[in-house]
Amino acid sequence: MTSTTTSADLFARAQQVIPSGVNSPVRAFGSVGGTPPFLTEAKGALLHDADGNEYVDLVGSWGPMILGHANEQVVEAVRAAAGRGLSFGAPQPGEVTLAEEVVRRIGPVEQLRLVNSGTEATMSALRVARAATGRDVVVKFAGCYHGHVDALLAEAGSGVATFAMPGSAGVTAATARDTVVLPYGDSEAVAALFAERGGEIAAIITEAAPANMGVVPPLAQDGVGFNRFLSETAHAAGALLISDEVLTGFRASAEGHYGIDGADRSWAPDLMTFGKVIGGGLPVGAFGGRADLMGLLAPAGPVYQAGTLSGNPLATAAGLATLEGLDAAAYDTLGRASSTLQQLVADALTTAGVPHVIQTAGTLFSVFFREQPVTTYEDAKAQDTAAFTRFFHAMLEGGVYLPPSAFEAWFVSTAHSDEVLDRIAAVLPAAAKAAARG
Ligand SMILES: *Cc1c(COP(=O)(O)O)cnc(C)c1O
């Protein structure tokens, strides 16, 4: 082993033994081009790569690092847990405390089961919904991403959007037939589908606020929010609503996006899914909701779901320490960092004459390179991805690490201090000029 291995060397080696050199597609920089920096160390809001570069991080591992990298309390909790044993495959106290904390924070969650990823969470929630209703069909929205679950990859966001894929090969025709994809926010299409096939539908699954095609907040129609409309429509037909808060949970607000559009308790999802922040950087997902539905899970109920490493002490320690760090002051800091950064980006792009629109869901935001607001996946795809690519590379060159895709949210953390934001501000004008040079 050499100690002077560069990112280029590592990427070349990786491509020999790992498909495309990466373990998750967007990381390959395929849509923006170039060699992805191989990261070796991170602290707070800063990243270091194998080539000796330092970057301000606006990816945050796609959400989990909400308290910044190597947060002392989180690292200490993990270190202490590691010393007591990495995994037991048996009940342990940390999983009880983490589940209690989620139930305390998230109104609609009465019971929760821990898994190892957001994908497992949505896959399992879907199985519960199908078992509860005795129906097969699931409704999803174009541009929403729910992990790499067979039934949910059609017209998905995240990497599927980044690489402009219609879905995924390897999904059976029977599975695809049981998934109906509708345009996001289209209440009429939802109503029409339920009028025709309501009795076949097990569940609607939606991101609480889509954030994997960029951030597309749910809009109200005639004073009724889209999520509330979905819950009412589903329930009228005996179907369930699964609200996917893997990305928005514990980030959009303390109670996730539900804390924004469910705060008046006029509606509630039947099941919710979590991931990312809930594990604080270790592999944790969770699904939860109504106790009668969660009671369908084995061993008491007929729905099988299991996991060798589910609820392991290391993962629950990281998740718990992260949630403990997320107090009211932390959300204030996040909110301020997010709005300051939005303003800086808007100013720079406006000055350079670059068409853009910034959309938010609580403290979550993304930047679309087009003039008009984005309400659907079609809108999101109509942005100027070439302008984003020029902007992205100029930012990277200047030491700011953005998501390598025009379809992803930008992630701040409580470690994004004014000093860190100043460093971003210093790079923005040149990057905006690069974006403008068409
Ligand atoms: C990231 C994400 C998932 C998948 O989670 P993984 O942990 O990557 O499997 C599911 N749903 C949403 C909304 C996500 O953002």
Automatic annotation (TrEMBL):
Stored Gene3D superfamilies: Aspartate Aminotransferase, domain 1 (3.90.1150.10), Type I PLP-dependent aspartate aminotransferase-like (Major domain) (3.40.640.10)
Catalysis: reaction(s): (S)-4-amino-5-oxopentanoate = 5-aminolevulinate
EC number(s) given by UniProt: 5.4.3.8
Main location: cytoplasm
Pfam (any one): Aminotran_3
Location(s) in or outside the cell: Cytoplasm
One biological process term in Gene Ontology: protoporphyrinogen IX biosynthetic process
Pathway assigned to this chain's UniProt record: Porphyrin-containing compound metabolism; protoporphyrin-IX biosynthesis; 5-aminolevulinate from L-glutamyl-tRNA(Glu): step 2/2
Names of required cofactors: pyridoxal 5'-phosphate
CDD domains documented for this protein: OAT_like
GO molecular function: glutamate-1-semialdehyde 2,1-aminomutase activity; pyridoxal phosphate binding; transaminase activity
GO cellular component, one term: cytoplasm
The entry's keywords: Cytoplasm, Isomerase, Porphyrin biosynthesis, Pyridoxal phosphate
Modified residues (N6-(pyridoxal phosphate)lysine): K276
Major enzyme class: isomerase
Membrane-spanning parts: none
Quaternary data: Homodimer.
Family matches, as NCBIfam families: hemL, PRK00062.1
Record family assignment: Belongs to the class-III pyridoxal-phosphate-dependent aminotransferase family. HemL subfamily.
PANTHER family: GLUTAMATE-1-SEMIALDEHYDE 2,1-AMINOMUTASE, GLUTAMATE-1-SEMIALDEHYDE 2,1-AMINOMUTASE 1, CHLOROPLASTIC-RELATED
Protein's UniProt name: Glutamate-1-semialdehyde 2,1-aminomutase
Primary gene name: hemL
